[in-house]
């Protein structure tokens, strides 16, 4: 619509001189307006676009306003038309209780008592226009999201790899016995030849399907552990390269399967082996080289898929972990006195923390984590970590720390840097099975052009982690930072530690270098950018250390996920706070006028109106109300990052610490990451 129509004022004041006066005042401030004689005329004019509506109280009371209220309810999801209601008595609910009815019917409404001052009208009009412009921006973002969904569907339909989602069925012993095809793409049909598989169970049309497929997919559905393998499908007489992982609610037992028909390759390999038996050694060498290249290709395909899905998976996974971690934390506090219960709950908490760490590492190597950088005194940070690092290393490793006295502050995310240091220390410990010396040094270093590849010249804080362990040969060193590459035994490492550290330094704009030799130990150097301002020293406490008591607060908690909201509310009540719950931003805004609050805690990713938009509304209504944003994953560069934020999943101590920082800005408490 034309720019003027989208920001014009529509006046419904057919009686008296209100319309003429308002039009004159708005015109002087540069706001175009149009007067309407009736509610039907107003609705017709609204279809041409408007920035806000000025309407008199008596017109709504005397005329049939139901068509207007129906139009308001039928607005697009992005639209919340601002109304300025001219009243005979005071605009507030205290002086004019009758206006409460219009607050619920008109929604986005402000009250203006007549006779009004021109400056007041202009101020309300400009505020309404600002809000309306934000709605237009939201409309544009929604359009982009819809276009993105269409592009995703187009990609899903056009990729060469077969893709399907199956639902597993189990017998009484928990063994997978059948599965049904829930969704599939055209490449699935091309690669399997199954034209009518959608909605059917596999045993209906492949009765001789090998049992190992049911066992494999059943294990993925039960445990959530992704698998990659190549296998022969007897019922289809084809070989497939398969990557399978669980999707959605674990209780739904759904598994996504990405695969390629590799039958031609398998056939070719068999023929080559039969034809070249006399050249066994050459064939063996060539096959190994080919398999190595294919393995690298498979890893690259997996990384590309994971990179695309990491952000969404991180958000959903952290939302799933939040109620688990929160409730286990509460159970630990209440029933931790019993040794058996404490051991069981502690084991569950440790598993949840490992899952949280895995998500952080995935985001780290994909360079999609949301960093909260600030000026950090690296020497103070290392000193605060000394006990934690010492306990992680064990008695067989001697820890030495060295820091320059005049070390400048580094511009880093302190929590992510601590996690990176712990990863490096654990790697060093595992490389020194017979004990040794681990040195952590922080110095100021000036880099010349080209000294560290892809790092700009300048002054940096160089953080070095040096061990006296077994070291690495050239082949291992060349692959050490590859994601999922690990020399540790199965179950003792994910292969993401060094990838995460490398990804973190790159995202910070710094540098990474790994040097090692057999029997000469390993050295990891991180170049961290120097901050423009001085660091603020912080005091550290462990995750289980009691926080100082905070006065009882009245808190409005907003989260569209019922389990997350319930668990968070229980943690807050366990701290002694009064909690009001809301399942959406709109419900929270409707409750806000009737509540006396000390704080608002809101989720970020919510339908219709997210936490950042809700915070903007609340700041207009209650500019001094403390706000805290809780999020599973926002994404790097997100506009909501300027709000105080707590990442999911969190425990009671994390939540208490975040509340203290928001309610008491003078607090400088920072918790060490849990092991």
Features:
45% helix, 5-stranded antiparallel β-sheet, 4 domains, 24 strands, single chain, globular, Rossmann fold, 5-stranded parallel β-sheet, alpha/beta, Heat Shock Protein 90, Beta-Lactamase, 21% strand, 675 residues
Question: Brief overview, please?
Answer:
The protein has 21 helices and 24 strands. With 675 residues, the protein is α/β, with parallel strands linked by helices.
Task: Walk me through this protein's architecture.
This protein is α/β, with parallel strands linked by helices and about 675 residues long. It folds into 4 domains: about 140 residues, Response regulator (Rossmann fold), CATH 3.40.50; about 110 residues, 2-Layer Sandwich (Beta-Lactamase), CATH 3.30.450; about 150 residues, 2-Layer Sandwich (Heat Shock Protein 90); about 130 residues, Rossmann fold (3-Layer(aba) Sandwich), CATH 3.40.50. The strands form 6 sheets. Strands 2-1-3-4-5 form a 5-stranded parallel beta sheet, with helices on both faces. Helix 13 crosses helix 17 and helix 14 packs parallel to helix 15.
Please describe the topology of this protein.
Blueprint: H1 3-6, E1 9-12, H2 18-28, E2 33-36, H3 39-46, E3 52-56, H4 57-62, H5 66-73, E4 83-87, H6 99-106, E5 109-113, H7 118-158, E6 162-170, E7 176-184, H8 186-192, H9 202-205, H10 211-223, E8 227-233, E9 238-247, E10 254-261, H11 263-275, H12 280-335, H13 339-366, E11 374-376, H14 378-393, E12 397-403, E13 410-412, H15 414-430, E14 436-447, E15 458-467, H16 474-479, H17 497-508, E16 511-516, E17 522-529, E18 539-541, E19 554-558, H18 562-574, E20 578-582, H19 585-591, E21 599-603, H20 611-621, E22 627-631, E23 645-647, H21 652-663, E24 669-671
Parallel strand pairs: 1-2, 1-3, 3-4, 4-5, 12-14, 18-24, 19-20, 19-21, 21-22, 22-23
Antiparallel strand pairs: 6-7, 6-10, 8-9, 9-10, 11-13, 14-15, 15-17, 16-17
Helix pairs in contact: 12-13, 12-18, 13-17, 14-15, 15-17, 19-20
């Amino acid at each position: 619509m034309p720019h003027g129509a989208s920001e014009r004022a529509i006046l419904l004041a057919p009686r008296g001189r209100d319309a003429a006066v308002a039009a004159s005042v708005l015109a002087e401030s540069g706001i175009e307006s149009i007067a309407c004689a009736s509610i039907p005329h107003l609705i017709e004019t609204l279809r041409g676009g408007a920035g806000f509506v000025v309407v008199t109280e008596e017109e709504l009371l005397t005329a049939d306003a139901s068509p207007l209220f129906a139009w308001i309810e039928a607005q697009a999801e992005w639209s919340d038309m601002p109304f300025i209601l001219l009243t005979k008595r005071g605009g507030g609910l205290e002086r004019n209780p009758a206006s409460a009815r219009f607050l619920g019917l008109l929604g986005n409404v402000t009250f203006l008592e007549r006779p009004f001052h021109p400056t007041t009208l202009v101020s309300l009009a400009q505020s309404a226009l600002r809000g309306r412009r934000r709605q237009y921006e939201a409309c544009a973002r929604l359009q982009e999201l819809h276009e993105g969904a269409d592009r995703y569907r187009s990609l899903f339909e056009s990729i060469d790899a077969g893709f399907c989602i199956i639902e597993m069925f189990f017998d009484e012993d928990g063994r997978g016995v059948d599965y049904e095809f829930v969704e599939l793409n055209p490449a699935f049909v091309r690669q399997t030849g199954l034209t009518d598989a959608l909605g059917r169970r596999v045993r209906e049309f492949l009765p001789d399907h090998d049992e190992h497929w049911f066992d494999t997919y059943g294990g993925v559905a039960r445990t959530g552990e992704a698998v990659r393998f190549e296998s022969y499908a007897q019922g289809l007489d084809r070989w497939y390269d398969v990557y399978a992982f669980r999707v959605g609610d674990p209780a739904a037992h759904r598994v996504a399967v990405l695969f390629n028909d590799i039958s031609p390759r398998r056939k070719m390999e068999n023929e080559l082996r039969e034809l070249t038996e006399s050249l066994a050694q050459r064939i063996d060498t060539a096959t190994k080289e080919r398999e190595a290249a294919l393995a690298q290709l498979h890893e690259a395909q997996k990384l590309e898929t994971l990179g695309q899905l990491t952000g969404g998976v991180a958000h959903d996974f952290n939302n799933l972990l939040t109620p688990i971690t929160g409730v286990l934390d509460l159970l630990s506090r209440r029933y931790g006195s019993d040794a058996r219960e404490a051991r069981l709950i502690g084991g569950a908490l440790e598993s949840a923390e490992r899952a949280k760490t895995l998500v952080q590492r995935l985001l780290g190597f994909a360079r999609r984590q949301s960093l909260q950088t600030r000026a950090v005194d690296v020497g103070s940070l290392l000193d605060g970590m000394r006990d934690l690092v010492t306990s992680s290393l064990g008695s067989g490793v001697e820890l030495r720390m060295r820091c320059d006295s005049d070390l400048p502050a580094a511009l880093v995310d302190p929590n992510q840097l601590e996690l990176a240091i712990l990863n490096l220390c654990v790697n060093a410990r595992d490389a020194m099975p017979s004990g040794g010396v681990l040195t952590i040094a922080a110095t100021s270093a000036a880099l010349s052009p080209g000294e560290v590849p892809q790092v700009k010249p300048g002054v940096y804080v160089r953080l070095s982690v040096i061990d006296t362990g077994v070291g690495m040969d050239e082949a291992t060193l060349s692959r050490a930072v590859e994601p999922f590459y690990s020399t540790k035994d199965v179950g003792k490492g994910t292969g993401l530690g060094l990838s995460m550290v490398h990804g973190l330094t790159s995202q910070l704009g710094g540098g990474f270098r790994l040097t090692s030799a057999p029997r000469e130990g390993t050295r990891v150097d991180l170049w961290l950018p120097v901050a423009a301002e001085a660091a603020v020293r912080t005091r550290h406490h462990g995750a289980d250390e009691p926080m100082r008591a905070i006065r009882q607060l009245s808190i409005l908690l907003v989260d569209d996920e019922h389990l997350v909201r319930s668990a968070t509310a229980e943690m807050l009540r366990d701290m002694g706070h009064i909690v009001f719950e809301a399942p959406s931003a709109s419900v929270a805004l409707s409750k806000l006028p009737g509540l006396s609050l000390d704080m608002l805690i809101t989720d970020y990713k919510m339908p219709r109106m997210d936490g950042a938009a809700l915070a903007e509304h609340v700041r207009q209504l209650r500019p001094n109300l403390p706000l805290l944003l809780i999020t599973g994953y926002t994404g790097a560069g997100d506009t909501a990052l300027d709000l105080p934020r707590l990442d999911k999943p969190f425990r009671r101590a994390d939540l208490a610490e975040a509340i203290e920082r928001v309610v008491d800005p003078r607090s400088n408490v920072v918790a060490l990451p849990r092991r």
